[in-house]
């Protein structure tokens, strides 16, 4: 993370309240989280330069739960949008979902009461010339 980027987000991060052990450097943790998100690697593969992977993950999870990441993103977007540095683009997914061919036209409530649905299904699929005599 560049020094300019760090100067923008550092004031938005939680500060230690003096209770318990001192926190590891926030910048080191944020860089570890960014590395993990950028690479998609498992947390256990986090390079040692970012500190213990458990510590980085715990801070990531804690900040996700308390809304720190959401506030950080919102503040950065609002600031950048105010000076025209954000280009808002809408992406539309063109994925098509279709029902399986056997699902088309199926009854939604099961067979009608009082009918023998197996015989009706068989008669539908029998050719007219081979159809049994009328009932």
From TrEMBL:
Annotated InterPro entries: IS402-like_dom, Transposase_6_like
Domain Insertion element IS402-like: 1-72
Superkingdom of the source species: Bacteria
Pfam families listed in its UniProt record: DUF4096
Name the UniProt record assigns to this protein: Transposase
Organism encoding this protein: Streptomyces lasiicapitis
């Amino acid at each position: 993370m560049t020094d300019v980027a760090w100067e923008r987000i550092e004031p938005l991060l939680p500060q230690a309240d003096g209770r318990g052990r001192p926190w590891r450097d926030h910048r080191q943790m944020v860089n570890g989280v960014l590395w993990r998100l950028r690479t998609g690697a498992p947390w256990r593969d986090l390079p040692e330069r970012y500190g213990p992977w458990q510590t980085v993950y715990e801070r990531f999870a804690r900040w996700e739960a308390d809304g720190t990441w959401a506030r950080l993103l919102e503040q950065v977007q609002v600031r950048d949008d105010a000076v025209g540095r954000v280009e808002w683009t809408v992406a539309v997914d063109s994925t098509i979902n279709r029902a399986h061919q056997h699902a088309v036209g199926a009854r939604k409530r099961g067979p009608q009461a009082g009918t023998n649905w197996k015989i009706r299904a068989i008669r539908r699929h029998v050719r007219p010339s081979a159809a049994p005599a009328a009932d």
